[in-house]
């Protein structure tokens, strides 16, 4: 089966370089436009009988709804697909992060997994993302669309593919970009495309 993992469109905090995590930040006008543009392309390439599951956070759910309108499918929220929690770092500037937690920032840059109040660790993100995607894939009778976030999407993909979480072996998806995977069975995944945007569809869809 084919599975598409989609990141939400742009938000104001994306523009400002702020970590969003569990904070419920809405899409910008451009973010809505990005979601609609990706929805139009996904409507052509996903195929009939699709299932859509989404993070319940507004930025992801609104992106999923745009896709659902094209595919004629209502997205189903799943809390396991939410973004990683960044704890006390959510909503503050990079400069404030570095000034207040210099050691933790260095650890984050090196391995992405600092010991910080409220910060959700890699293993937790991987476990819930893989569990959710595998379960949705088991239940789907056609293509599956998963709408999620930058960090949770990347860690989820690394988990499905059996890649180490110690390093960013995959880059984050861009706003309203997607990855396409093929699934032969539980734990049997192939990454076919990564970080696809509407303008690349001619060669990468």
Describe the overall structure.
The chain has helices spanning 12-16, 29-45, 58-71, 94-100, 102-111, 122-139, 150-161, 201-204; strands at residues 2-7, 51-54, 76-77, 144-148, 178-185, 188-196. It has 205 residues and is an alpha/beta fold. The mean pLDDT is 95.
Quick summary of this structure?
The chain has eight helices and six strands; from the N terminus they run βααβαβαααβαββα. With 205 residues, the chain is of the alpha/beta class.
Considering the chains and any ligands shown, give keywords for the structure.
single chain, 205 residues, 6-stranded mixed beta sheet, 6 strands, 42% helix
Query: Quick one: biggest sheet?
Result: 6 strands, mixed
Quickly count the domains: 1
Category from helices, strands and their pairing: alpha/beta
SSE topology string: EHHEHEHHHEHEEH
Major sheet: order of its strands? 3-2-4-1-5-6
Helix content: 40-55%
Please report the number of helical segments.
8
Q: Globular, elongated, flat, extended or rod-shaped: what is the shape?
A: globular
Give me the CATH architecture, please.
3-Layer(aba) Sandwich
Radius of gyration: 16 Å
Instruction: State the low-pLDDT regions, or none.
Output: none
The whole-number mean of residue pLDDT values reads 95
As for the CATH topology, it is Rossmann fold
End-to-end C-alpha gap: 15 Å
Q: What CATH first level would be assigned?
A: Alpha Beta
What is the tally of beta strands? 6
Q: Please, what is the CATH homologous superfamily?
A: Phosphoglycerate mutase-like
